[in-house]
C-alpha cells in the first residue's frame, strides 16, 4: 500500500516550506530542544511541589540569615565611608582654622561681620 502524493506523510520540509535537508535538521533540533526545555520546566515544577514545609522553612531561614549578613556588611561599608568623609571634613575645618589664624594676624583689631553676628 503506497501513500498518495498528497498525503501528509509525503510532504517533507522541503516541499512544505522550501527547506533543504540541512535546514530541516536544524528545525528538528530546535523542536527537540523546545521539548527538552518543556520537560525540564515540568520536572523543576514537580521538585518545588515535593518540598515539604520544613524544607521551605529551612530555605527561608537560610535566605534570611544571608540577608542579615549582607545588610551588616553593607552597614560596615557605609560606616567606613562616613568615617572617611568625617576625616576629610575635619581636615577642611583644620585648614580653615589655620587660614582664620593667619587672617587675624593681618589686622588684629578688625572683627569680621560674621564673627559679630555669631556672638
If you had to describe this structure to a student in words, what would you say it looks like?
With 119 residues, the protein is mainly α. 80% of the residues lie in helices and 0% in strands. The chain is built from four helices and no strands. It is elongated.
Describe the structure concisely for a colleague.
The chain has 119 residues and is mainly α.
Q: Name the shape in a single word.
A: elongated
Uncertain runs are: 1-13
Radius of gyration: 39 Å
Strand percentage lies at: under 5%
User: What profile does the largest beta sheet have?
Assistant: none
Distance between the ends: 114 Å
Binned, the helix content reads over 70%
Structural class: mainly alpha
- Overall mean confidence score, pLDDT: 75
**Helical segment tally?**
4
User: Strand tally, please?
Assistant: 0
Q: Helix and strand string, N-terminal first?
A: HHHH
Short key terms for the protein model shown above:
mainly alpha, about 120 residues, about 0% strand, disordered N terminus, about 80% helix
Strand-helix topology:
Elements: H1 13-17, H2 21-50, H3 53-106, H4 113-118
Amino acid at each position: 500500500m503506497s501513500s498518495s502524493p498528497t498525503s501528509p506523510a509525503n510532504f517533507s520540509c522541503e516541499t512544505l516550506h522550501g527547506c533543504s535537508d540541512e535546514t530541516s535538521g536544524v528545525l528538528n533540533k530546535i523542536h527537540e530542544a523546545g521539548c527538552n526545555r518543556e520537560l525540564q520546566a515540568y520536572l523543576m515544577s514537580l521538585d518545588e511541589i515535593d518540598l515539604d514545609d520544613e524544607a521551605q522553612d529551612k530555605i527561608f531561614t537560610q535566605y534570611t540569615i544571608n540577608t542579615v549578613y549582607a545588610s551588616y556588611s553593607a552597614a560596615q561599608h557605609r560606616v567606613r565611608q562616613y568615617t572617611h568623609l568625617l576625616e576629610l571634613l575635619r581636615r577642611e575645618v583644620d585648614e580653615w582654622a589655620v587660614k582664620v589664624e593667619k587672617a587675624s594676624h593681618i589686622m588684629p583689631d578688625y572683627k569680621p561681620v560674621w564673627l559679630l553676628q555669631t556672638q
